[in-house]
Amino acid sequence: MSKRVTVFGTGYLGATHAACMAEIGHEVLGVDIDAAKIAKLEAGEVPFYEPGLDEVLKRNIEAGRLRFTTSYEEAAAWGDIHFLGVGTPQRRGEYAADLRFVNSVVEKLAPLVTKPAVIFGKSTVPVGTAANLGELARELSPAGEGLEVAWNPEFLREGFAVEDTLRPDRLVLGVDRDRPGRAEEVLREIYAPILELGMPFIVTDLATAELVKVAANSFLATKISFINAMAELCEAAGADVTVLADAIGHDKRIGRKFLNAGVGFGGGCLPKDIRAFMARAGELGAEHALTFLREVDNINMRRRTRMVEISRELVGGSLLGSRVAVLGAAFKPDSDDVRDSPALNVAGQLQLQGATVNVFDPKAMENARREFPTLGYSASTEEACQGADLVLVVTEWKQFRELVPADLNKIVRRKRIFDGRNCIDPQVWRAAGWTYRGLGRP
Ligand code: UGA
After folding, report:
1. Which atom of ligand 1 is nearest to the CA of 257?
2. Is the pTM of this model over 0.85?
3. Distance CA 387, CA 210 (A)
4. Residue 217 contacts residue 251 (beta carbons within 8 Å)
5. Which pLDDT belongs to residue 105?
6. Domains in the chain, please, with CATH?
7. DSSP type of residue 439
8. Virtual CA dihedral for 69, 74, 77, 79, nearest 10 degrees?
């Protein structure tokens, strides 16, 4: 049955959630304080790159099921089911998460809620946040105890956001065990078309739901750093980490996914989530439980430095005066997100050491230019590689994976390619007279 829902925050998470809730038949109002973003969305334009999302957005706007607003008054009056999907970035100069946006939604929304309603938090937050927000909501709302706060963490991946929202591996809901309310019943109704597909629906307390999310991201980060640590060993021993990953990945208990060694993880989630988790553990007096995450972070950051070192070796010991093509700027393919992107971090370090750097990315150019305005940018792979002494592949976009030596043979000054994602075939390049380097490969 169709319900009226609101979604606060229209970033990667919120905009996708709003569009997908409309896609499964609900009447949705997306809310954001950023008027420019709202204007774009109203015009049927996704303010970032996410495959497939623009069609879902347009289709549902046209069907009249999806609208956007900057007005909290309108949102509070619209319905009694509110999703909260605003960002929780890393605090400047600290490991902890910045909760100002989640707090602000509740501070502004709760006083406007006069009848029983549920707020479902989706943002990634430090454990304990949901309980605090519940208290705040009850205090500020004329509905008092009638305003419930529950937590429904989101596990979507950028690049697969629509698919992950409509067909998630599992759904998790944390409810306030001290105040039995309507949250579970309401969410079962909202997600009925998704639950019909038969995925697990796990209902638990607020703290467990909050922890599920950060535990999942910590595990993924650990898996990547594990294989990158193996890559360091492979480099020292002259072994091949890609074969090693395939071989251990056949063990179903280990699994091959998230065992791609390379320049490491970046993005708006994994790096800041493991740091916020360590900070929160410290506050709870359980920091020892997570000291391993510091090492996970260290291994990850070391990959970036290692890429710069190997690049320097490849151009003959000094980057001064060398031309380096950097293929990729996004933190991963099929995204235009450059938050904590290893690609741009490496490009920046190379430039600081004297290289002339030319970056090309199929989708992330605008975001990259904004974050790193002093790097050199090119309009195509060919332009970036013009006269290059070294070509780096740092984001494994399909068009880079499919590059063949003939595409670049006549363009570069020196035939050297450094594959920071182990995503191209060394044999093909070596056979064409190129020097190929990967990470963790002989
Ligand atoms: C991650 C999680 O995968 C999602 O489940 C979660 O919902 C999301 O964070 C979030 O918290 O919002 P995402 O940041 O979109 O999703 O990206 P991932 O696909 O997890 O990749 C993260 C980084 O790890 C990328 O830089 C990627 O290149 C890198 N990576 C991934 C590797 O270096 N090796 C791998 O084998 C896999």
Report:
1. 36
2. yes
3. 50
4. no
5. 98
6. 4-199 (3.40.50.720), 204-442 (3.40.50.720)
7. S
8. 0
